[in-house]
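Inputs:
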Amino acid sequence: MVNLVEIRDLKVEATTDSGRRVDIINGVSFDIAEGEIVALIGESGSGKTTIALTLMGHARPGCRISGGSVSVAGKDMLTLSEKQRARVRGTEFAYVPQSAAAAFNPAATIMDQVIEVTRIHGIMSPDEARARAVDLFRALSLPEPETIGSRYPHQVSGGQLQRLSAAMALIGDPKLVIFDEPTTALDVTTQIEVLRAFKSVMKKGGIAGVYVSHDLAVVAQIADRIVVLKGGEAKEIGTTEEILNGAKHPYTRELLAAFEPKPRGAADAAESGPAPLLEIENLIAGYGQAQADGLPLVRAVEHVSLKVEKGRNLGIIGESGCGKSTLARTIAGILPAAVGKIVFDGKELGRSARERSRDELREMQIVFQYADTALNPAKSVEDILARPLTFYHGMNAKARNARVDELLDMVRLPHNLRHRRPGELSGGQKQRVNFARALAADPKLILCDEITSALDTVVAAAIIDLLKELQRELGLSYIFISHDLSVVEAICDEIVVMYGGKKVEEITPAKVKTPEHPYSQLLFSSVPRLDPTWLDGLEQDPELVRAYCRR
Amino acid sequence: MTMTHSETKSDRISGTRLGYRFNIIGMVGLSVILFWALIAILAPLIVPYPVGEIVDLDYFGPMSRDFWLGSDYLGRDMLSRILMGARYTVGLSLAAVTIACFSGVMLGMIAAVAGGWLDTVLSRFLDALNSIPSKLFGLVVVAAVGSSIPVLILTLSVIYIPGAYRFARALAVNINAMDFITVARIRGESTLYLIRSEILPNIVGPVLADLGIRFVFIVLLLSGLSFLGLGVQPPYADWGALVRENIGGLPFGAPAVMAPSFAIASLTISVNLLIDNLPKKIRDRSE
Amino acid sequence: MNNRVLSLVLSRLLIALITLVIVSFAVFFATTLLPGDTASILLGQAATPEAVEGLRKAMHLDDPAILRFLRWIVGLLQGDLGTSYANEMPVADLIGGRFINTLQLAGVTALFSVPIALTLGITAAMLRGSLYDRIVTVLTIGVISVPEFMIATSAVLIFAVYLKWLPALSFANDVTSLTDLLRIYAMPVITLTFVISAQMIRMTRAAVIETLNTHYVEMALLKGASRPRMVFRHALPNALGPIVNAVALSLSYLLGGVIIVETIFNYPGIAKLMVDAVSTRDLPLIQSCAMIFCLGYLLLITTADIIAILSNPRLR
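Outputs:
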């Protein structure tokens, strides 16, 4: 087979704030054959997008391609002039961006932008181009293919925009399409639709592709070969089959291990105490002006009741906008409920945090998704952890000092980290500090709102292990909110499925394979598996998809 | 990782000396500012001639060895007058900008944290105040109460409170939306704690840069008012007033006209240069 | 225009109205409530207490402040700007012709500065980081950092004293030919153009750079678009709102500029009138001039805001 792309010893350097040059891509080589889809996989900062962009001869501001060669269809992209490069962009290779919402010009119609490539390169007449665009819209199973092009980008949904950006890439009949995490921002049920559309169009046209992603399961569905990247170096290259079943490099194995289902160890005999730790009855909460009936204008949580037993964990799962985070905020008293009862440890709590006593506040802590915004960047780790100790426990400096060390031990962080600011920590370290601050209060219940979602797979898996250990040591309970079924399965005793602000089903991890409610069925079956045949073999009831997917 | 580690360690030991980068343009700006600050403090000790005394027989005299910057419309030494003028220009502006920024930033943080009607009323009122052009505001106040030095300081600061308020409020509103504020709120912390310990440390950098920009505005406005004869009144004279006194020398190209202008420009441009080239913390992530 | 845009625009207009009320309140009270008895100032030191008392009555100075404020506002709305203390003429007559003069000055300045500033601002943004860009940036910072009178005096020194091309001072009542007109306007317009353009260049450059940094412009690059196409098709249509906004905001700096420029060049405009009124403490005249300035300023910043709302494609 002839290689369409040959990358040899590619080096890219970036200029840091202090003007120092650092290599962010350090000698990467791989090939792509005609019609082959190669995935670049790695955590954030591994250089996968940077490499993909060099295929088009492009480096983002601040970066410079400093060595090696990128030859595409016999041309070395790095030695072409700016004009020659512009000539092949859009025609020989095209780019599908990570955030289609940002990649569409808000001031022009979708059609104008989709056919812009044909206009720039004079490939065909505008009328032909429009007809071809409509064909592509149809092939990508977009709704109303005839008229969707006349809309403006802000008038269509995220999933649609993502497929429209694929149409924008395919209109010039490229030999190679670069997909830059095109489904990362989408919900799982939407992701399936988009992935299927991409796959069928690519296979039908025999187009080669580069698929950049951090999600091994997604990549397994679409790629022929996988390049595993870490720290700007290719750690392992192999066919999808080889990588999934016979990974050689330890890092690849780590990535795969993070996917292993880790069922929650036999639920320790639930303390059959007299009362549950937390009981919520018929909670209604939302945003906007209160209406005549005393309910908020937009109701994000409707009639939700649930129970958490002492020492057990409750998972709440659902897609973006289902009200799961609002529910957590309502329980914590950040957003006071309009209606409903929250009974915690036998006492009914005030709906707003202001109406709760200091001890009530102390015993229920919340940990947020983004440690970046949940930790004050101007304070040291020590100050962040010490504040709840002073505030709740009135500890003096000496006691605080000792306790901060204990807390750092608990979350497996070295003591010398205490003088650092959050900005000087890695993502996983920040999330540990975030969690340690909740522990500092000595709580009985911790609300975890998507705490692993912003982390790389391997790091997230380590955090989950930590949470389990701490539960064993401290006898805590968690409410674990996530959109990721595997995470919730790994740690929870009960799982609540939410859709449109309502609780649709309550289920135990053992029964996750056989949910009863149709939405749970759809949601659970949409989670990508590490099996390359999963997507092709997946059959979902189209009625169900139509009913529950906001595409 | 190890690299960042050693850096922070040394940070703690030697303060800010390590881990910051300060370029040459910023240093030049800072030196000029420090130069004028020193002059303002030491002026009476270093003036070559008494400020009010007529020492040159000629008026609007040229630059010479005796009179480095020539003489003014009465034959007084221009260099001495400019050195003394620094006291008024720098001193008044500094006082006004301190009052303006302190009040503006306090009000801004309170409005951001409190929200609700207090925020609305305060913002609406200060925005209205802001829509009176600054020179006009100055004119109206001077027309009503005359221009003594305390009145000038107060007027200048009132004019620039809305701007400082708006700036600080916008920053504080952003910080206030962060999760760490929510965490502190549901910990049960008081509003005072939120402002002092959670918000202030995060906005102090930009607020200081804003203070510099506002200082420039105030220097320019004060000079403008003095130039119109409505600012610092004789026998005292700031740099704007010096230009006004000597405007008659303009047709002869007398140094007395341009020298005070250059003094103003050197100060304001330096502040701008410093703000655009503030020392940057080096954030080299070696990973 | 849809409902959302309409309601945003209406609320902006309402805010402008409320602001105007607060501003007129501030102007009135700043000029009347503060120390100094107007009647005795008017009659001079030789006046008898009876005469002062009589005048106070005639001017309603003993009425509560709020009543006088309302009377003043109602007068303003009916076009009655009051009578000048200094020469007993109706304020409206004093302002009339001079207001036109100032408008002419502002208009001519805008005519020059807007095209120059937009060209420089946009080209500097397009060639960001180049020597050209750096020169433009340094010059604009320089002009912004110095007082207006320094630019005026420098212009006089260069064009009138050294080059002897233009007269140093304006005399608008002595115009006999087009060249005269040009010579009269030249100096004030040059000065004001410098002041306004510097602001406008800075804001325009920033607005264009911001849109050039967006993902959709990068996307256009990856589609193979040429540089001009990226700028004119993708960046500028989205930067239009911010640019027009920048123009309106910069024009509001004219108000501060004319006060200095009219004084230094002796230009018979409304700003010069007001500065003179301040030195004679002619309150009705000051109030009216101040209101005209505030109104103009408010008009400009409100226009800027409304343009920003209208140009947001997401609200279409």
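Remarks. The interface with chain A takes residues 1, 4-5, 8-9, 12, 21, 178-180, 182-189, 198, 201-202, 280-287 of chain B (CB under 8 Å). Chain B is about 70% helix and 0% strand.
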